[in-house]
């Protein structure tokens, strides 16, 4: 299938802007590299050999295409829309992150870079990066906030097994944004031999467009699969949003289909009005961080504030610039669900479908639980099940300690 | 439009006439607290700082190393705001109308304040120039061109990765002086070899008549002296913020910063004499 042909209507402009969002707000040291990367990416996109190798790796190494699964019991319980799950949780390494990493590592090799760096929050992007670095025999350095290292031990061990060096980041607040700062510092220092695999649709141009393109395989497959099963396009698409890469990957091939509702679900943490959330679009304002202009969690003085979410993968105070643009233009809708709603949805999917979702993906399910009953039975919804929940067992066990001690968690009455 | 004061150009002309390099000192505004930082700022010209770089604190200073990052967070912790930073410049201007002040930092706090409001207030306060690390020439319309319209110099960084192809773009709207970042990496990194830096500075001089300040990794009077033989100015930052970090009291922090400033100032003043002797 290869990469999509760039659609000028949706691609960023030459400066990397989606409307007023995006851009290349980086130190001068990085500019020549970013321009070199952009050139390399543009040439790779047109190269049939690059695309053929990418397709083969997607099929044989990642395990694509991921299934589109009709969640019958969930649909029946909610009594409304027909809910399909796009099963990214079944892909190699357990989440959609690998789609992007495999593309970027091929680009790194093409550019002659031998040293891979990445930032990670929950550790899924770190694991996916360590995986592809191992596969291609490259040195791999992962920056991870010390707070996240404590709460995501299994992923730290996975990265180490895969041969990566995990560097704890103690600067700032020791979370994902600080890990990204330190990865950028590493890149500035080791410009000659290093390739920075950014894990989401954010950062300086060309990253937001490039990561989106590599993730768009999700939406392209979903489009074919839903047409095959339903004979038509879906009515709505749902995905959770931290930086926004799984959502962008699902949405992008449908941007031109104006009848398809696009719904992004942010993390409301303890509630949007508590200040303890990670909902950049609904609780933030435009600003410039990590190379792009987008919506950020920040003070009136432009100081970045901490994001809060039960899900480490959504715990980022920004969002990809294309989402900021889709939000402002009204093409996509953005909503938020709380930690508690996500936990309820997590239990619901476990019990009704026998699928343990990532807490990130549970946010999308939580919104489906609210939305589906209000929709007619012929409404077709595609929800991106972006990852599996094994990594979240410690968090979930802690939150559900009482219920687990008393027997199975009560989950057969989803919140209405 | 604000009238141009040309303090930066005048200062570099004076330095040229005196045949010596200038000393540019960096401190974070409000580090470790407002009063100490103000006291230090007011005393810097007398201690020998020829140009003052005043850091506008930001939570996420991506291009800075641990030392300046820590200093910016200390300042924020102590309640520093953009209004207070500008207030410090006003206070300096009441007693010193000659020493150029360059505000250094990141774009977001300026963007959030509003570019026009910020520029008007900065010019009124007596700021002479801006170094905004995350605005490459590709984004000149955001702040660089509006700043020039307000009579403020926009000082750009050139780095070892800035090749001959890119240098003209970097120089195009740069004014005041050019800040040559002597190593790839963040502030506070290891010291570069002076011979290599001298060659790189010479290469830039073929393209530009702007004064060239050299920074990143210069910590001691000895290093400053070596660079001051060929550069128009020597920039020292992390070594000064380290003193604040290690001081046991705010008074000691201020004293230590001024002491190092004095020895660095001595070093840049004797650099060319000793080289010729």
Automatic annotation (TrEMBL), chain A:
Gene Ontology CC annotation, any one: cytoplasm
Modified residues (N6-(pyridoxal phosphate)lysine): 97
Cofactor(s) needed by this chain: pyridoxal 5'-phosphate
A Pfam family reported for this protein in Swiss-Prot or TrEMBL: PALP
Highest taxon in the source lineage: Bacteria
All copies of domain Tryptophan synthase beta chain-like PALP, residue ranges: 64-387
UniProt-recorded Gene Ontology molecular function terms: tryptophan synthase activity
The protein's annotated pathway: Amino-acid biosynthesis; L-tryptophan biosynthesis; L-tryptophan from chorismate: step 5/5
Protein keywords: Amino-acid biosynthesis, Aromatic amino acid biosynthesis, Lyase, Pyridoxal phosphate, Tryptophan biosynthesis
Family to which the UniProt record says this protein belongs: Belongs to the TrpB family.
PANTHER family tied to this protein: TRYPTOPHAN SYNTHASE, TRYPTOPHAN SYNTHASE-RELATED
Description of how the protein assembles with itself and partners: Tetramer of two alpha and two beta chains.
Task performed by this protein: The beta subunit is responsible for the synthesis of L-tryptophan from indole and L-serine.
Protein name as it appears in the record: Tryptophan synthase beta chain
Organism: Onishia taeanensis
From TrEMBL, chain B:
GO molecular function: tryptophan synthase activity
Pathway in which the depicted protein is active: Amino-acid biosynthesis; L-tryptophan biosynthesis; L-tryptophan from chorismate: step 5/5
EC assignment: 4.2.1.20
Domain of life the protein comes from: Bacteria
Alphabetical keyword list: Amino-acid biosynthesis, Aromatic amino acid biosynthesis, Lyase, Tryptophan biosynthesis
Coiled-coil intervals, chain numbering: none
Pfam families the UniProt entry points to: Trp_syntA (PF00290)
Active site feature: 53, 64
Gene3D superfamilies xrefs: Aldolase class I
Cellular component GO terms held in the UniProt record: cytosol
EC category name: lyase
Alphabetical list of InterPro entries matching this protein: Aldolase_TIM, RibuloseP-bd_barrel, Trp_synthase_alpha_AS, Trp_synthase_suA
Catalytic activity entry: (1S,2R)-1-C-(indol-3-yl)glycerol 3-phosphate + L-serine = D-glyceraldehyde 3-phosphate + L-tryptophan + H2O
Role this protein plays: The alpha subunit is responsible for the aldol cleavage of indoleglycerol phosphate to indole and glyceraldehyde 3-phosphate.
Subunit structure comment from the entry: Tetramer of two alpha and two beta chains.
Family to which the UniProt record says this protein belongs: Belongs to the TrpA family.
Protein name, entry field: Tryptophan synthase alpha chain
Name of encoding gene: trpA
């Amino acid at each position: 299938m290869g990469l999509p042909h760039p659609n000028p209507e949706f691609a960023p402009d030459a400066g990397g802007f989606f409307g007023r969002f995006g851009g290349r707000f980086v130190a001068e040291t990085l500019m020549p590299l970013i321009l070199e990367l952009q050139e390399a990416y543009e040439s790779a996109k047109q190269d049939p050999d690059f695309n053929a190798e990418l397709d083969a790796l997607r099929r044989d190494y990642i395990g694509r295409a991921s299934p589109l699964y009709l969640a019958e019991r969930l649909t029946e319980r909610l009594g409304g829309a027909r809910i399909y799950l796009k099963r990214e949780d079944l892909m190699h390494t357990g989440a959609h992150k690998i789609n992007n990493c495999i593309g970027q590592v091929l680009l790194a090799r093409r550019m002659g870079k031998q040293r891979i760096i990445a930032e990670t929050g929950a550790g899924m992007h770190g694991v996916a990066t360590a995986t592809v670095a191992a596969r291609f025999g490259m040195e791999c350095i992962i920056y991870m906030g010390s707070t996240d290292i404590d709460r995501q031990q299994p992923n730290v061990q996975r990265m180490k097994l895969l041969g990566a060096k995990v560097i704890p980041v103690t600067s700032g607040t020791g979370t994902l944004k600080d890990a990204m700062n330190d990865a950028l510092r590493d890149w500035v220092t080791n410009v000659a031999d290093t390739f920075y695999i950014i894990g989401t649709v954010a950062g300086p141009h060309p990253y937001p467009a490039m990561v989106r393109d590599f993730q768009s395989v999700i939406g392209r497959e979903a489009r074919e699969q839903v047409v095959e099963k339903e004979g038509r396009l879906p009515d709505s698409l749902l995905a959770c949003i931290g930086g926004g890469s799984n959502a962008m990957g699902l949405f992008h091939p449908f941007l031109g289909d104006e009848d398809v509702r696009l719904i992004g679900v942010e993390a409301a943490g303890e509630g949007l009005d508590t200040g303890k959330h990670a909902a950049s679009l609904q609780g933030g304002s435009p600003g410039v961080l990590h190379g792009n202009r987008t919506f950020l969690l920040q003070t009136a003085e432009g100081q970045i504030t901490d994001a809060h979410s039960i899900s480490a993968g959504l715990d980022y105070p920004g969002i990809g610039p294309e989402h900021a643009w889709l939000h402002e233009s009204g093409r996509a809708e953005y909503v938020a669900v709380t930690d508690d709603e996500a936990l309820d949805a997590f239990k619901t999917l476990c019990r009704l479908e026998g699928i343990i979702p990532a807490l990130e993906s549970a946010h999308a399910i939580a919104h489906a639980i609210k939305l589906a009953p209000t929709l007619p039975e012929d409404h077709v919804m595609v929800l991106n099940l972006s990852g599996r929940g094994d990594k979240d067992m410690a968090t979930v066990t802690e939150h559900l300690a009482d219920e687990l001690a008393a027997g199975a968690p009560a989950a057969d009455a989803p919140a209405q | 439009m604000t009238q141009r004061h040309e303090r930066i150009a005048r200062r570099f002309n004076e330095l040229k006439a005196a045949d010596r390099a200038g000393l540019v000192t960096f401190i974070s505004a409000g580090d470790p607290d407002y009063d100490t930082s103000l006291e230090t700022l007011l005393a810097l010209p007398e201690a020998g700082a020829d140009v003052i770089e005043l850091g506008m604190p930001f939570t996420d200073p991506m291009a800075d190393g641990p030392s300046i990052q820590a200093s910016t967070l200390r300042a924020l912790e102590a309640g520093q705001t953009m209004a207070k930073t500008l207030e410090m410049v006003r206070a300096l201007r009441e007693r010193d109308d000659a020493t150029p002040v360059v505000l250094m930092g990141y774009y977001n706090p300026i963007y959030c304040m509003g570019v026009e409001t910020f520029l008007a207030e900065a010019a009124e306060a007596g700021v002479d120039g801006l170094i905004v690390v995350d605005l490459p020439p590709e984004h000149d319309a955001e702040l660089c061109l509006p700043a020039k319209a307000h009579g403020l110099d926009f000082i750009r960084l050139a780095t070892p990765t800035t090749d001959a192809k890119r240098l003209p773009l970097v120089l195009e709207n740069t004014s005041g002086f050019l800040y040559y970042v002597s190593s790839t990496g963040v502030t506070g990194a290891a010291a570069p070899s002076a011979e290599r830096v001298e060659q790189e500075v010479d290469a830039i001089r073929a393209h530009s008549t702007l004064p060239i300040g050299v920074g990143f990794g210069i910590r001691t009077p000895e290093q400053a002296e070596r660079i001051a033989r060929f550069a128009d100015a020597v920039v020292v930052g992390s070594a000064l913020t380290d003193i604040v970090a290690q001081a046991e009291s705010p008074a000691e922090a201020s004293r230590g910063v001024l002491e190092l400033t004095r020895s660095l100032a001595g070093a840049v003043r004797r650099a060319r004499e000793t080289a010729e002797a």
